[in-house]
C-alpha cells in the first residue's frame, strides 16, 4: 500500500505520530558509551520493548525500530550479525505494536561518500539493500530513512528500498543552523530530489530544536507536493561539561508542533532528547485541528547535490560545449578515458554563468556507459551546477541518472513510441526533467502546429508513466536558415504554442539556425531575441559567447523578469567588476601562478601535479607553498565561510593540495640530503581536529633539516601524545590546531604533558593561534609557519 493511502485510510486523514528518541532514552537507562545500541535488541530486548510500549501509550501511531546504525560496517567487528540485530529489532517493535505500524529505521552508514570520502555509491547501496531486505522479511510496515546529511547517500538508500522491497519509504534529512545539511544541500533541493525519487513523505529530523527548524520546515512546505514529516530534537543540543543536554520541555515542544501542523506538516515525532511525554503532549496539542490539504506544486526544477535551478520567467542557459561533435581534442580524450577536458569545461561554464551543463560523451568506439558514469562524477567533483545528461543511448542515460547526485535533465526523449517507452521509465525512476524533441517517426514537421502536436503527444504519454508536465522541457528544434529558411519562424511559433497551450517550459539549440551562413553570430543573436520573445526559457548556447549572454541579460531586464535590473546592474556596472577582481588572488598571466592557485580553488586534482612540477623548475618548494598553495587555501576558506562553497568543495580543494604537495615533498626530500639526525620531534594535530595539511608541511621541512619526526597524525587523543613522548624520550612536541573549538584540546594536551612531569618543550601552530594565545595555553613556543618551526627546533637541539 502506498503511504498516501495509509494516511487517508488507516489514519483517517489525521496527523500521524511517530515515536520519540530511542538513543537518549537508552542513555537514561544506563547504556554504556561505546556499546552499539542496536545490540540491545538481542541482549536487552525487554528494555527496548518497554520504551516502545511507553511511546505507544503516549499516542504514537508508528513505532521506529531500534536499528538506526545496524549496518554491515558498524557490525563488522561485532559478535552479532546485522541480520540478527535487525530481525530482533523488528520483532521487539512488532510484539508490542498491536495494531500500530512498525517502521524499519535506517540511519546513515557513518562513512563519507565519494568523491569527498571513500564509500562508493554502489557500496552504500549494497549496505542499505541488506538492511531493507532483512527488515521487510522480519515484518516492517514502512521504511524510514533518517538523519541523512548527505543527499547522495539518501539517494542510495531510497533506490535500495525501491528496488528491493514494496514498502512505503519516508526520508528525513538533518540540517545545520545555517539552513543546509553538512554536505551543503538546502531544503528546497532535498525536496526536488527526494520527491523525484518517489519517496512517500519527506522532511527533517534531529538537527536542531523545533524553533530553529521552523524556517527549514517552511521552505520544505513551500516546495513539497507530498506529506511533510518533522521530528525535532528537544532543543539545541548543549554540552554542560559532562554530557549533552537539551533545554526544551515537552509543553514548549508541543506548542511548536502545533504551529508546524497549522503550517501544513502532516507527520510528527521526536528526535534526540525527547521522551514519551513529548509525544503525549504533542498529540494532545493537535486535538481538534485538521491537517491542511497538501497542494501539488508545479515548479520545473533541476538540481545538483546542493543547489536548485527553478525555471521561472527569468531566462537562463544550458552550456553546450561538452559534446564531441566537431571537437578533435575532446574526442581523443574520450578515447583515452580522460575527464580533463570535461572538468575544465565545467569549471569554465560555471564562470560563464551556465545554469545547466550539457554532458555528451557519445562516441561510437567507446564504452559510453563507463564514460558517462566517470564524467558525471568528474563534473560533480568540481562544480555544483545541474547537469543535462545528453545521450542517444537509453542505457547510458540510465547509468548517468543513477550515479548523478541531484535531479538532472535527461536529454532527450522524442515523439517516437519506441523512444518514449525506453526513456520515460528512467525519468520516472530517477526523478529528472526531460527534454522533449518535437520529432517523431515521420521526422520534424515543417509547421509550428505539427511540432506542437508532437509536444502534446509527448506530454500526454508521459502522464501515463506518472511524469507531470512540469518535468518536461520541450525543444521545438531550430532548423537552418540556409537550407530551410521558410521554417525558421515556425520554430518560434511552435515555442509560443507550447508555452501558451501546453503551459510547458521550452529549450532550444539556438545556433543550429546559422549553419552554413557567414558571420553566424549575427543570425544567432537575432534568432535568440525572437525566440526569447516567443517564450523560450532555457536556450542552449555557448557560454563563452558574450553577445548571446548579453542578449539574454538584456531580455531579462526588458521583459521585467530581472526585477529592477538588479542582475543586469551587478553584472555590467564597472564598480562591481573591480570588487570581484580584487577579491580573487592576484593573477599573473605570464607565470604558472594563476594555474596552480586556480587549480586548487577549482579543485582540479588531475592538473595539480603537472602544474607543481612546472613551477618547481623555477621556484623553491617553500616559495610555492607560501605564495601559491596557502593563498589559494585561504581564499577557499573565505568562500567556505561566506557559504559560497560547501564541505565537498572544501574537501576537493584539500585533496588537490595533497596532490601538489606530494610533488613538493619529493622535491624537498631530494634536495635536503642531510643524514645527520639532529633530534626526535613528535608532531600531532590535536584531538577533534582533522586539519593536517599545515602539520604535514612542518613535518617535511623538519625532516628536510635533519630532524626525525614521529608523526602521530590528526585527531590525536591526549594520552597518545603523552605515551609517545614517554616512549621515545622526546624533547620537543609540536601540536597543531586549526579551529577555535580545538584549541582547548591543545591546552589539555599540554596540561597532560606537564602533569606527567615530562621534560619536553612544546611548540604550537595553526591558523587560529597567535603568540599571546600560545602563551596562555602554556606552550613554550609559537610558530607562525613551517620555517619558524625549524628555527625553534634548531634552538632546542642545535644551539
Ligand atoms: C583545507 C581545509 C579543510 C580540509 C582539511 C583537509 C586536511 N587534510 O587538512 C577539510 C575539508 C577536511 C576541512 C574540514 C573542516 N573544516 Co576546514 N578548512 C580548511 C582550510 C580551507 C585550509 C586549512 C589549511 O590547510 N591551510 C593551509 C595550511 C598550510 O595552513 P596552517 O594549517 O595554518 O599551517 C601553517 C601554520 O599555521 C603552521 N602550523 C600549522 N600547524 C603547525 C604545527 C606546529 C607544531 C607548528 C610549529 C606550526 C604549525 O605552519 C603551517 C605551514 O606554514 C581552512 C581555511 C584556512 N584558510 O585556514 C578551513 C577551516 C580551518 N575549516 C574550518 C571548518 C569549520 C571545518 C569543518 C568543521 C567543516 C565542517 N562543517 O565540517 C571541518 C572540520 C572537521 C574537524 N573535526 O576538524 C574553519 C575553522 C573555523 C574556526 N576558526 O574554528 C576554517 C577556518 C574555514 C572557515 N573559514 O570557516 N577543512
Could you list some keywords that capture this structure?
binds cobalamin, alpha/beta, 8-stranded parallel beta sheet, 799 residues
Folded structure, characterized:
- The chain is built from 31 helices and 25 strands.
- The chain is of the alpha/beta class.
- The strands form five sheets. An eight-stranded parallel beta sheet has the order 1-10-7-6-5-4-3-2, sandwiched between helices. It has an eight-stranded parallel β-barrel with strand order 13-14-15-16-17-18-19-20, surrounded by six helices.
- It is globular, with a radius of gyration of 29 Å.
- It binds cobalamin (B12).
- Cobalamin (B12) binds at residues 630, 633-634, 636-637, 640-641, 647, 650-651, 654, 683, 688-695, 697-698, 734-736, 738-741, 763-768, 783, 785-786, 789.
Amino acid at each position: 500500500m502506498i503511504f498516501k493511502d495509509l494516511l487517508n485510510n488507516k489514519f483517517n486523514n489525521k496527523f500521524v505520530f511517530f515515536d520519540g528518541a530511542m538513543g537518549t532514552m537508552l542513555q537514561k537507562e544506563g547504556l554504556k558509551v561505546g556499546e552499539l545500541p542496536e545490540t540491545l535488541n538481542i541482549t536487552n530486548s525487554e528494555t527496548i520493548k518497554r520504551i516502545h510500549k511507553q511511546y505507544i501509550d503516549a499516542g504514537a501511531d508508528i513505532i521506529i525500530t531500534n536499528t538506526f546504525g545496524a549496518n554491515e560496517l558498524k557490525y563488522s567487528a561485532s559478535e552479532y550479525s546485522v541480520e540478527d540485530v535487525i530481525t530482533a529489532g523488528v520483532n521487539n517493535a512488532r510484539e508490542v505494536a498491536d495494531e500500530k505500524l512498525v517502521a524499519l529505521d535506517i540511519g546513515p552508514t557513518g562513512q563519507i561518500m565519494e568523491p569527498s570520502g571513500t564509500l562508493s555509491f554502489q557500496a552504500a547501496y549494497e549496505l542499505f539493500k541488506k538492511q531493507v531486505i532483512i527488515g521487510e522479511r522480519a515484518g516492517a510496515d514502512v521504511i524510514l530513512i533518517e538523519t541523512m546529511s548527505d543527499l547522495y547517500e539518501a539517494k542510495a538508500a531510497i533506490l535500495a528500498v525501491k528496488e528491493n522491497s514494496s514498502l512505503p519509504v519516508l526520508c528525513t534529512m538533518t540540517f545545520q543552523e545555517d539552513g543546509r545539511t553538512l554536505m551543503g544541500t538546502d531544503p528546497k533541493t532535498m525536496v526536488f530530489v527526494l520527491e523525484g525519487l518517489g519517496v512517500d513523505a519527506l522532511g527533517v529530523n534531529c538537527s536542531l530544536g523545533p524553533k530553529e527548524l521552523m524556517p527549514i520546515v517552511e521552505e520544505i512546505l513551500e516546495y513539497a507536493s507530498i506529506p511533510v514529516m518533522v521530528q525535532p530534537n528537544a532543543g539545541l543540543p548543549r554540552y554542560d561539561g559532562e554530557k549533552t543536554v537539551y533545554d526544551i520541555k515537552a509543553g514548549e515542544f508541543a506548542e511548536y508542533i502545533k504551529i508546524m501542523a497549522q503550517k501544513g506538516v502532516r507527520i510528527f515525532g521526536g528526535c534526540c532528547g525527547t521522551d514519551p511525554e513529548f509525544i503525549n503532549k504533542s498529540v494532545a496539542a493537535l486535538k481538534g485541528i485538521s491537517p491542511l490539504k497538501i497542494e501539488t506544486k508545479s515548479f520545473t526544477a533541476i538540481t545538483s547535490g546542493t543547489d536548485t535551478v527553478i525555471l521561472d520567467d527569468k531566462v537562463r542557459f544550458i552550456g553546450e560545449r561538452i559534446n564531441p561533435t566537431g571537437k578533435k581534442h575532446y574526442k581523443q580524450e574520450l578515447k583515452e578515458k580522460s575527464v580533463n577536458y570535461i572538468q575544465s569545461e565545467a569549471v569554465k561554464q560555471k564562470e560563464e554563468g551556465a545554469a545547466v551543463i550539457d554532458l555528451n560523451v557519445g562516441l561510437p568506439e567507446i564504452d559510453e556507459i563507463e564514460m558517462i558514469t566517470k564524467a558525471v562524477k568528474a563534473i560533480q567533483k568540481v562544480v555544483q551546477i545541474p547537469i543535462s545528461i545528453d545521450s542517444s543511448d537509453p542505457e547510458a542515460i540510465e547509468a548517468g541518472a543513477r550515479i548523478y547526485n541531484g535531479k538532472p535533465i535527461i536529454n532527450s526523449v522524442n515523439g517516437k513510441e519506441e523512444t518514449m517507452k525506453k526513456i520515460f521509465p528512467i525519468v520516472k525512476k530517477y526523478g529528472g526533467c526531460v527534454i522533449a524533441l518535437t520529432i517523431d517517426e515521420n521526422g520534424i514537421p515543417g509547421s509550428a502546429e505539427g511540432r506542437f502536436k508532437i509536444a502534446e503527444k509527448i506530454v500526454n504519454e508521459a502522464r501515463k508513466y506518472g511524469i507531470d508536465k512540469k518535468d518536461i522541457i520541450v525543444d521545438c528544434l531550430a532548423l537552418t536558415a540556409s537550407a530551410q529558411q521558410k521554417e525558421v519562424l515556425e520554430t518560434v511559433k511552435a515555442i509560443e504554442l507550447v508555452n501558451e497551450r501546453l503551459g510547458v517550459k521550452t529549450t532550444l539549440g539556438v545556433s543550429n539556425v546559422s549553419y552554413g551562413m557567414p558571420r553566424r553570430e549575427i543570425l544567432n543573436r537575432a534568432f535568440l531575441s525572437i525566440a526569447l520573445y516567443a517564450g523560450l526559457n532555457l536556450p542552449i548556447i555557448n557560454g563563452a559567447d558574450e553577445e548571446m549572454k548579453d542578449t539574454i541579460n538584456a531580455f531579462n531586464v526588458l521583459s521585467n523578469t530581472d526585477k529592477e535590473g538588479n542582475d543586469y546592474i551587478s553584472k555590467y556596472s564597472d564598480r562591481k567588476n573591480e570588487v570581484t577582481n580584487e577579491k580573487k588572488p592576484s593573477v599573473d598571466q605570464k607565470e604558472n601562478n594563476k594555474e596552480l592557485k586556480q587549480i586548487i580553488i577549482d579543485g582540479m586534482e588531475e592538473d595539480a601535479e603537472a602544474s607543481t612540477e612546472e613551477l618547481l623548475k623555477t621556484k623553491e618548494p617553500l616559495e610555492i607553498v607560501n605564495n601559491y598553495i596557502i593563498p589559494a587555501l585561504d581564499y577557499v576558506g573565505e568562500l567556505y565561510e561566506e557559504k559560497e562553497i560547501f564541505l565537498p568543495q572544501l574537501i576537493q580543494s584539500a585533496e588537490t593540495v595533497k596532490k601538489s604537495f606530494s610533488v613538493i615533498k619529493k622535491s624537498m626530500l631530494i634536495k635536503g640530503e642531510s643524514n645527520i639526525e639532529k633530534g626526535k620531534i613528535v608532531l600531532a594535530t590535536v584531538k577533534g581536529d582533522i586539519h593536517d595539511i599545515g602539520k604535514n608541511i612542518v613535518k617535511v621541512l623538519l625532516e628536510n633539516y635533519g630532524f626525525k619526526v614521529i608523526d602521530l597524525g590528526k585527531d590525536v587523543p591526549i594520552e597518545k601524545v603523552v605515551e609517545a613522548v614517554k616512549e621515545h624520550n622526546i624533547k620537543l612536541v609540536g601540536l597543531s590546531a586549526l579551529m577555535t573549538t580545538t584549541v582547548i584540546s591543545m591546552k589539555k594536551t599540554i596540561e597532560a604533558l606537564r602533569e606527567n612531569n615530562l621534560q619536553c618543550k612544546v611548540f604550537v601552530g595553526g591558523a587560529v593561534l597567535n603568540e599571546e594565545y600560545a602563551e596562555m595555553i602554556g606552550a613554550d613556543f609559537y610558530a607562525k609557519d613551517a620555517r619558524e618551526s625549524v628555527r625553534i627546533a634548531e634552538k632546542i637541539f642545535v644551539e
